[in-house]
């Protein structure tokens, strides 16, 4: 980052030339995003310095890492406590940053949002120099709310699905074509929403109803939506019910959390899991809606993961499900004093890369199961591996298809499957047999 002072120097011929000169980069130049990232890194340094001097107090100042702002493309989201001093300090940062880089704040498009308990909102917004907005607000395509997304907050998703199907000529498309449009377009944008927020069940039902009406061209539904949303070998056409996709998305977020390595996972862990283990955490009313959904999916996640044991220093001996996707506390039942075993890791029963479970209240069979677990002493940190259904090759990498297959409802193979899909014809021709039932 030694290049940053040069790029952002106010002297002529430096950043001003790079960003404002007529000979600068054209729009769409592949170098432009890198230059923008370098410039915004300087803004991050300015924010960190101001936070360290306590002129700006972050919204969650007691949670580490401290998150004072987030940047996505050309969108900047600043999270701070709305004191008058902090508002003026942020305004000074934006003016100084604009003077050095040439990237000016667009005050007409910028808004400041306050919690309902904040007083003197107009005065604080005036100190910052931008207009006051009202939550919820659409950010990165999804509604940003204080507590949880309500049905009225998700109208844009329903409107998107409605506009899409109205723009398609259903009468001129085959049954297979309508299926593919729903699968690729509607399900695609809905997947983005489901992996970002918890969509209400009422919104999911509306989107599914729109898709079903489009598939059957507004006429009688010869086959129920539940049956359409089954794999072909179970008598459906391969669509996915959105309530199952929502649950799979929660399992995916839980997987990302236990894998760690991201700012989100570290922040959430320090916010909600200060004195408890993730696997032993119970739902609290103070938790966010998303984190509550993640905790509800732990029993499902537990059946699809396995621990790759290295030195055992990062795996909780009693609470983590490292023993055949089960925790030691679960296997031993009430034979353990929780307080006596709090904070112990698997390194306690590993000596020189060999299991040494002596001295603990195991049964002989359980001790033998522990000794059969492979220890990879070449590495120094334990890691989780994905072992869900349908994951071939043993790579241990997460697969959403495998995750969805884990949470969906399974059905027996029906007699109609061989009649529709087992005729040796192409999939396009096989769809004709289904579409025949939907003819008015």
How far apart, in Å, are the first and last alpha carbons?
A: 67 Å
* Main sheet attributes: strand count, strand direction, barrel closure: 2 strands, antiparallel
Which range best describes the helical content: under 10%, 10-25%, 25-40%, 40-55%, 55-70% or over 70%? 40-55%
Number of strands: 10
The whole-angstrom Rg is 27 Å
Strand content: 5-15%
Structural class given helices, strands, pairing? mainly alpha
| Element pattern in H and E | HHHEEHEHEEEHHHHHHHHEHEEHEHHH
Low-confidence stretches: 1-21, 436-440
Mean pLDDT: 82
Number of helices: 18
- How would you describe the shape? globular
| Widest sheet, order of strands | 1-2
Summary, kept brief:
The protein contains 18 helices and 10 strands. The protein is mainly alpha-helical and 440 residues long.
Topology:
Blueprint: H1 4-7, H2 15-20, H3 32-52, E1 69-72, E2 75-78, H4 84-101, E3 111-112, H5 121-128, E4 131-132, E5 137-139, E6 142-144, H6 155-167, H7 175-194, H8 201-215, H9 225-228, H10 242-259, H11 263-272, H12 289-296, H13 298-302, E7 305-308, H14 328-332, E8 350-351, E9 354-355, H15 364-371, E10 383-386, H16 400-407, H17 415-421, H18 427-435
Parallel strand pairs: 3-4
Antiparallel strand pairs: 1-2, 5-6, 7-10, 8-9
Helix pairs in contact: 3-4, 4-5, 6-7, 6-8, 7-8, 7-10, 10-11, 10-12, 10-16
Architecture overview:
The strands form five sheets. A two-stranded antiparallel ribbon has the order 1-2. Mean pLDDT is 82; it is low at 1-21 and 436-440. The chain contains 18 helices and ten strands. It is mostly helical.
């Amino acid at each position: 980052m030694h290049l940053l002072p040069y790029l952002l120097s106010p002297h002529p011929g430096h950043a001003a030339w790079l960003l404002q000169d007529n000979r600068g980069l054209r729009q769409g130049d592949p170098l432009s995003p890198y230059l923008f990232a370098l410039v915004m890194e300087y803004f991050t340094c300015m924010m960190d310095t101001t936070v360290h001097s306590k002129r700006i107090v972050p919204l969650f100042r007691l949670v580490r890492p401290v998150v004072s702002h987030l940047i996505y493309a050309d969108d900047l989201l600043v999270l701070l406590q709305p004191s008058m001093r902090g508002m003026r300090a942020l305004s000074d940062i934006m003016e100084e940053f604009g003077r050095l880089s040439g990237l000016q704040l667009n005050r007409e498009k910028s808004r400041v949002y306050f919690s309902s308990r904040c007083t003197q909102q107009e005065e604080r917004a005036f100190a910052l120099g931008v207009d006051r907005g009202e939550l919820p607000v659409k950010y990165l395509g999804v509604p940003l709310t204080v507590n949880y997304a309500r049905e009225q907050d998700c109208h844009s998703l329903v409107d998107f699905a409605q506009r899409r199907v109205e723009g398609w000529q259903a009468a001129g498309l085959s049954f297979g074509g309508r299926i593919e449009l729903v699968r690729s377009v509607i399900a695609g944008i809905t997947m983005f929403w489901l992996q970002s927020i918890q969509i209400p069940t009422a919104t999911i039902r509306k989107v599914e109803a729109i898709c079903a009406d489009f598939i059957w061209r507004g006429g009688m539904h010869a086959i129920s939506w539940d049956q359409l949303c089954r794999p072909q070998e179970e008598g459906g056409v391969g669509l996915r019910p959105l309530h199952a996709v929502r649950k799979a998305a929660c399992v995916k977020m839980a997987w990302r959390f236990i894998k760690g390595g991201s700012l989100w996972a570290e922040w959430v862990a320090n916010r909600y899991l200060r004195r408890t283990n993730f696997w032993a955490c119970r739902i609290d009313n103070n938790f966010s809606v998303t984190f509550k959904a993640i905790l509800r999916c732990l029993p499902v996640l537990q059946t699809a993961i396995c621990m790759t044991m290295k030195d055992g220093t990062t795996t909780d001996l009693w609470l983590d499900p490292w023993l055949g996707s089960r925790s030691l506390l679960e296997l031993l039942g009430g034979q353990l004093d929780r307080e006596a075993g709090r904070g112990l890791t698997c390194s306690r029963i590993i000596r020189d890369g060999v299991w040494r479970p002596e001295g603990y209240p195991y049964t002989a069979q359980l001790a033998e199961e522990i000794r059969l677990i492979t220890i990879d002493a070449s590495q120094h940190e334990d890691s989780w591996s994905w072992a869900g259904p349908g994951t071939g090759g043993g790579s241990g990498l997460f697969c959403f298809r495998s995750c969805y297959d884990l949470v969906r409802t399974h059905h027996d193979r029906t007699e109609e499957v061989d009649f529709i899909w087992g005729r040796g014809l192409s999939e396009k021709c096989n769809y004709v047999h289904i579409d025949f039932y939907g003819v008015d």
